[in-house]
Specification:
There is one protein chain. The protein contains eleven helices and eight strands. The protein is of the alpha/beta class and 251 residues long. Helix 2 links the parallel strand 2 (37-41) and strand 3. The longest helix is centred in the last third of the chain and has 19 residues, at 180-198. The chain is globular and about 45 Å long. The two termini are 20 Å apart. The structure holds phosphoenolpyruvate. Residues 9, 11, 167, 172-173, 211-214, 232-236 line the site of phosphoenolpyruvate (PEP). Phosphoenolpyruvate binds next to strand 8.
């Protein structure tokens, strides 16, 4: 039985006081939610404050990225060990905004994934096709390349520390969600890829989240699909009531 995950990616939003206000507003709205794991992913600078604010609650802390070295002369980077030190249990890697604006490649995603797993973080690995790739009927080829690139050299026993997020780039921040069927089709394909690489048990165990304009209005339909195990939420995670409504999709 795969426990669903609802994760909020706050992107480049929220100062310390705004971030603390958001989680303080969220806590009472989700404190009875046992059906899913709840994660928030703020910017690096507010991780420690948010960690203090969520202490004793059912909300988990994630960073939005990490570097692959533990320490050294790498100005501007943050290592997995430092994220653990700041209170993170999770980290997002390979988000399409990192791929699009910061030249993130599958090889870099793979290096980050290995380093984060080594530090004991649970890693949310983002994959997904662009609109041009979908329109050229390349979606499945792109997903295959991204999954095999990210997972290169990853052992089956490491899969328990990995969550995949399928985020079609054309649906992120656009208000244009994949239909339940489009998302399900991609998720089933990704699960098949994991089966080819690691076998049926691994494929049945891995959680695959959908991301791309998830809102309170569309979460139920998405969660009704057999291969969708949760959501990675951007815009709608920036307000306590809308994120709580997504977390409480079972009500
Ligand atoms: C995201 O940031 O991962 C995301 C899916 O954003 P949005 O929900 O705003 O489309």
């Amino acid at each position: 039985m795969r426990k669903p995950v609802i994760a909020g990616n706050w992107k480049l939003f929220k100062t310390t006081s705004e971030a603390v206000e958001l989680v303080n507003g969220l806590k009472p709205l989700v404190n009875s939610a046992n059906h899913c794991e709840i994660i928030v992913a703020p910017v690096f600078t507010v991780l420690t404050s948010v960690n203090q604010a969520i202490s004793g609650s059912n909300i988990n802390l994630s960073a939005q990225d990490c570097f692959w070295e533990e320490e050294g002369a790498f100005t501007g980077e943050v290592s997995p060990r430092m994220l653990v030190d700041a209170g993170c249990s999770h980290v997002i890697i390979g988000h399409s905004e990192r791929r699009q604006y910061f030249g993130e490649t599958d090889e870099m995603v793979n290096k980050r994934l290995k380093a984060a797993l080594k530090s004991g973080l649970t890693v949310i690995v983002c994959i997904g096709e662009t609109l041009a790739e979908r329109e050229a009927n390349n979606t499945f080829d792109i997903l295959r390349t991204q999954v095999s690139g990210a997972m290169a050299g990853i052992a089956a026993e490491d899969l328990k520390g990995i969550i995949i997020a399928y985020e079609p780039v054309w649906a992120i921040g656009t208000g244009r969600t994949a239909t339940d069927q489009q998302a399900q089709e991609a998720h089933a394909f990704i699960r098949r890829l994991i089966m080819e690489l690691y076998g049926a048990d691994a494929a049945q165990g891995i959680r695959i989240l959908y991301g791309g304009s998830v809102k309170p209005e569309n979460i139920k339909g998405l969660m009704g699909q057999p291969d969708i195990d949760g959501a990675l939420v951007g815009g709608a995670s920036l307000k306590a009531d809308s994120f709580a409504a997504i977390v409480n999709y079972d009500k």
